[in-house]
Amino acid sequence: MSTDEWLSDEEIIGRWEQQGKERTSRSGKKHSADADDEGGTGDEKGRKPKQADILIGVADNAALFHTPAPDDDAFADVVINGHRETHRVRGRIFRGWLRHKYFELTGSACNSEALQVTIDTVEAKARYKGPEQPVHIRIAGTDDAIYIDLGDLAWKAIKATASGWQIVDEPPVRFTRSQSTKPLPIPERGGSIKLLQPFCNLKTSNEFVVLVGHVLATLRPDANYPVLVTTGEQGSCKSTLFRLIVRLVDPRSPELRSLSKDEDALITAAKCAHALSFDNISGIPVWLSDAICRLATGGGAGKRKLYSDDDEILFDGRRPTFLNGIEDVVTRGDLVDRSNIFSLEVIAENKRRTEAEIDGEFAQKAPKILGALLDGLVAGLNNLSSVKIPEKPRMADFALWAEACTRAYWRAGRFMKAYRENLAASVELVLEASTVGTAVRRFMQTREEWSGTAQELLGLLTPLVGEQVSREREWPKRPNTLSGKLKRAAPALRKVGIHVTRGGRAGHAGERVSEYQPPGVQRRRVDVDAVAVIVIPGRHAVDLAEREQAVAQTLDGDRDNLKTRQRSVDAPFATGEVEIPCQRALTHCHRHRFRDIR
Questions:
Q1: Same-domain status, 140 and 127
Q2: What share of the chain is helix, strand, coil (3-state, %, to 5)?
Q3: Are residues 229 and 274 both part of a single domain?
Q4: Residue 358 belongs to what domain range?
Q5: How buried is 137 (Cβ within 10 angstroms: 0-12 exposed, 13-18 middle, 19+ buried)?
Q6: 86 φ, ψ to 5°?
C-alpha cells in the first residue's frame, strides 16, 4: 500500500458511522451502548463503534502479510513520518502505533482488552488474507542485488548490484529491527580498503587479506558464514577489533555480549541480530561448539514458546559469529574447519591509544571504509561466476565469494593463498589440542605404515603420552572411545599426511588409517584394523634384521620378544610373517604381516 492510498482520519470516522447505520438498519431496532461497559463512546440515540472496531479500522491502513513457514509470523507495513516501516503485529512498535492513532482520533486511551482483540484479529487477517513475504535482519538479497538495511530513522537501505551501489528509500525487500539495532555509517565513495588495516593489529598482510574476505562474507545474504576467532594476551586489541567490525556490518547495542548460557539464549540472539559477537571467552562447551557450527553452515533449532504447551519458537538459518578470548577457545576440529583464526600481538605501551581516540578516528574513516567494502560486493557479484578453485577447502562457498570480492583490491589468487596459510595454522591448533592426534603424529614419526586393531593402537599410544596424560579424562580408556577421537582428529591428521579411515578384515570390524599425500606433505600410512601391518618402502626385499627392527619400533622396543620366521623371499615384492606377543594390547598373541612395497 502506497502512502497515497492511506485513509485520512475523517474518512476512517465516516466509515465507522456508515457501518453503524448499516448494522442498525439490519437489526431493525435501537442498540444502547455504554462507554464504560462496551469500551466505546456510545449514546442512547445509536450504537457507536467499540474501541476494538476503531482500532481495527486504524489497522486497515497497514499493509498486512505473513512470513513463510516455519515462522508464519504476522507483519504490517505502516507509514510513519512519510516513510515505510515494517513491524511484527504482536511487537511493541505496532502496538504503540495503534494506541497513538486511537488517541489522535478520539482524544482518549484505548483499554488493554480492546487492543488485544485488535491484535488477534489483525494477526488472523495477515496470516489468512495477507500475502506471504520473507522478512530479513540487516542483509537481504534478490536474484541480482544485495540490500543492506542502513538502520536509520528513514528506513533507507543500500542496494548493491553488479553495476554499482546506491542508497534507496524503499527497497523491494522487507527488513525488521530489534531494540538493539543501530545505524550503519552512511557510505561514501572513493575510499580504500587500506584505511581499515591500521585498526586491525594483525601480524601479516596476508592475515588482513583473509579478514577483509571474512567481513565481505558477512555482508552476503543467506550464505555460509565462517566463524571469526581472535586470541591473544590482554591488551592485544581483540575486543576493539570486534567492535569496529560490528560497526561496519551490523551495529548493535551492546556491541559485544557474554557467551550464551544455553541454546535457548543463542536462538533468541540469532533471531534478533544478523551478526553475533561474543567477548572474552574462556572456553566453549561441546554443545555450544556444535550449535555455532550449525549457525555457520546452516541448521535448525527450537524452544518452547512461553505460556504454551505445543508451540515452538523456531530458528532455521545462518548467522556470522565472532568469538574472542585469551586462550585458544576453538579447538574442536569441526568448528576449526569453519573458522578463520587470528592470534593478535600485544600492543607496545608507547603505541597504545585511548578508546576515545580510536573511536573518533574510526568514525571519521568509517564511511569511506564501508564504501570500499561495498565496492568489494560489486566486484563479487561481477566475478563470482568466473572464479574457479581447483582444490576447494571445507568452506568452499565462502572461499569462492571472498576470492571474487577481494579481486577489487588485490590480484587474482591472493586471497586463496592467504586463506590456505590460515587453514594450515589452524590444523596445528587442532592437533595440539587433541591428545590422540598428538600421540598418533608422534607415533608415525618413524613409520611409513601401521595397521592393527583399535585395541592394539591404544596399547601402543598410551605409553607415548605418559602416565599423567593417560590418567586424564580426555585420554581414551576403551578402544571404541579411541575410534571416536580418531574420527574427530582425522581431518587435521590428513592435512599433515596421515590418513585415517575405517576398515575391517576377515569379518572383523576395525579402524583403518590409510595413506594420503597432499601436495608438499610426506606420505605416511597407518591401518587400525584386525591385523597389524608394517610397510617398509623399498625396491626389493629387505633382510630379516630390518624387518625385526621395524616391528620392534612399532611395539615400542619389544625386540627381545620377537620370533621371526621367513615364509618366502621374492623380489621385487616379498612377504614375511612375524609372531609377536602384544602384552600391552591383548593377553594373547597376534599375527603380524609385513611386506615390502616397490
A1: no
A2: 40, 20, 40
A3: yes
A4: 193-428
A5: buried
A6: -120, 125
For 91, the grid coordinates are 511487537
Distance CA 560, CA 548 (A): 10
DSSP 117-145: HHHHHHHHHHHHTSPB--EESSEEE-SS-
How many structural domains compose the chain? 4
d(CA 267, CA 315): 7
Q: Residue 60: CB partners within 8 Å, gap ≥ 6?
A: 7, 12
C-alpha dist (Å) from residue 47 to 28, 55, 102, 281, 432: 12, 17, 19, 64, 79
Rounded Cα distance, 508 and 440, in Å: 22
Q: Say what the pTM is.
A: 0.73
Residue range 447-461, pLDDT digits in tens: 878 888 888 888 888
Residue 127 lies in a domain: yes
- Cα dist from 174 to 126, 141, 220, 270, 316, whole Å: 15, 10, 16, 18, 18
H/E stretch holding 373: helix 355-383
400-413 as b/e, with b when 16 or more CB fall inside 10 Å? bbbbbbbbbbbeee
Mean pLDDT of 151-180: 95
Query: pLDDT grade, residue 522 (50/70/90)?
Result: very low
Strand ranges inside 37-133, DSSP E: 63-66, 74-80, 83-88
